[in-house]
Amino acid sequence: MIEQTLNKLSSMRLYAMAEKLKEFHQSAKLNAVEPLEIITYMVDSEHDKRKHNRIVRLTKNAHIKLPSACIQDIKFSRQRNLYKEKMYDIINGNFIEHKQNALISGATGVGKTYLACALGNMACACGLSTLYFRVSRFLEYIHQEQALGNYLKCIEKIGKIKLLILDDLGPDVMTHSQRNMFMEIIEERYLTSSTIITSQLPLEQWYAVFGEESIADAICDRIFHNAYKIELGGDSMRKK
User: Fold this and answer.
1) Per-residue model confidence (pLDDT) at position 221
2) Which run of H or of E encompasses 42?
């Protein structure tokens, strides 16, 4: 009977439950464990396994530049203008739940990408779909999808990502087609999901990156609204 049950669990792809049942069957303590407790252990095992597999899949699909970046290793200090108590909603992922953005600016090497990647890895660990792109490659990707006739599907797909990380905005001014594509993405995600954008440029200079004033106003209005603004300072972390 045990073999039939194991086969049925495997046929339903409940592999972790099957493994836990097999483990109990081979244990000398089987008779000392209540049936309900055995079922609980089996269900917990399957749940934990699926949760782990989902995190692995999300992390792989996110293509985060720094896969080892983590919240615990972020250096909070006055010199960096980075205060842990002021970032509670960010490092705990509450900003994603509330569909808010995080805008990170600062000079080269101060840790913008690391902070963004740490937040991305945190989101994956929480079971949230995440996607990382450098802005330049992101625009190339959208352009390629447009050329293949997949533009609308691409916009819709990216719009559903819970956390989109766009690293290194500017300083080059976007072309007409680039800012229109960027606007489409921002509009699709506005108040429905969270976006992290990093840039060497101070926030007030982001308007210039989008060129045309009306489009720049529309884009910045949407990404600045309901956003956390983090202006990193201090010396380059690479020197250290």
Assistant:
1) 95
2) helix 35-62
Per-residue b/e over 196-219, b at no fewer than 16 CB within 10 Å?
Answer: bbbbbbebeebeebbeeeebbebb
Query: What's the confidence (pLDDT) of residue 18?
Result: 81
The region of weakest confidence among 3-7, 113-117, 157-161, 215-219 is: 3-7
CA pseudo-torsion sign 199, 219, 97, 79: positive
Burial status of residue 12 (CB atoms within 10 A of its CB: 0-12, 13-18, 19 or more): exposed
Domain of residue 106, CATH code: 3.40.50.300
Domain co-membership, 89 together with 207? yes
Q: Which of 61, 79, 110 is the last residue of a domain?
A: 61
At 97 the three-state DSSP class reads helix
Nearest to 188 by CA among 228, 216, 213, 154: 154
Q: Tell whether 153 and 47 lie within a shared domain.
A: no
Same domain, 94 and 210: yes
The number of beta carbons lying within 10 Å of the beta carbon of residue 52 is 11
Banded model confidence at residue 100, pLDDT cuts 50, 70, 90: very high
At 41-85, the pLDDT tens digits run 888 888 888 888 999 999 999 999 999 999 999 999 999 999 989
